[in-house]
Design brief:
The structure is a single chain. By secondary structure, the chain is mainly alpha-helical. The chain has one domain. Helix content is 80%, strand content 3%. The chain is built from five helices and two strands. It has a two-stranded antiparallel ribbon with strand order 1-2. α4 packs antiparallel against α5. The longest helix is centred in the N-terminal third of the chain and has 29 residues. It is elongated and about 60 Å long.
Length: 137
Amino acid sequence: MKSLTINIVAVAVLAVVHQITNFGWYTLAGDNWMTLANLTTAQMQASTSPLPYISSLVGAFLSCWMLAWLFVQLKVESPLQGILYAISLYGCFLFFTGMTVDMFHLRPFRLTLINEGINFVNFMLSGAVLGAWRKYA
């Protein structure tokens, strides 16, 4: 019998895809996001550090790898099953944590929805891809 294993290629592809979806999401949110976050165009243009981008890529890789590992343990065998697990994990471990942090920082809930919305999209996408693009030992 074949045993499910982590598909490292799918994990790496998803980490890159997360960067693309993040770029698109925040491009669409644009001025609304900047206003809610109390940022100016000048501040954004003055920021030249590559660290946020490196952190985003590393974080995406690690979260996709951990999701893939969990899917192996849970024996996820379909995109729908992957989406359901990913959404459940996202809601329990990320959304409410992010929302609580934003509440204590007195940030507008609309900002939370923008910032957490892309995480929801990325987790749902990752669940679907990892549920469909399986690898067997």
